[in-house]
Specification:
This protein is an all-beta fold. It is built from no helices and eleven strands. The strands form two sheets. Strands 2, 4, 5, 6, 9, 10 and 11 form a seven-stranded mixed beta sheet that branches. The chain has a four-stranded antiparallel beta sheet with strand order 1-3-8-7, with no helix packed on it. The protein is globular, with a radius of gyration of 13 Å. The model has no long low-confidence stretch (mean pLDDT 97).
Length: 122
């Protein structure tokens, strides 16, 4: 049974930084790509970033490119999202998700964490 547990959310001023973590359990972590998604109040959930099982390939939404960094430590079964230069529009619940594949494939993220709130004050 796959379990994903996010942490690291909180309240930060605009321009500040946060690092989200997601610890996975239930199957061999390095075999599966991981993704980060977010959902702001009244909006659809949107893609933020994703990383392949090996960590060699990363992908970002245009809105976060250059500010967010997705990484993973397969020895710790953990994926990270380093968020710098945060903006009020980054405010959302952030979810990590695990794919069914080692490479990043759109629509393949079927396991989800409970989410962690990120609030960026202007």
């Amino acid at each position: 049974q796959v379990q994903l547990v996010e942490s690291g959310g909180g309240l930060v001023q605009a321009g500040g930084s946060l690092r989200l973590s997601c610890v996975a359990s239930g199957r061999t972590f390095s075999m599966y790509a991981m993704g980060w998604f977010r959902q702001a109040p009244g909006k659809e959930r949107e893609f933020v970033a994703a990383i392949s099982g090996s960590g060699t390939s990363t992908y970002y939404a245009d809105s976060v490119k250059g500010r967010f960094t997705n990484s993973r430590d397969n020895a710790k079964n953990t994926v990270y999202l380093q968020m710098n230069s945060l903006k009020p529009e980054d405010t959302a619940v952030y979810y990590c998700a695990q794919s069914e594949y080692r490479m990043v494939v759109a629509g393949s993220f079927h396991y989800w964490g409970q989410g962690t709130q990120v609030t960026v004050a202007a």
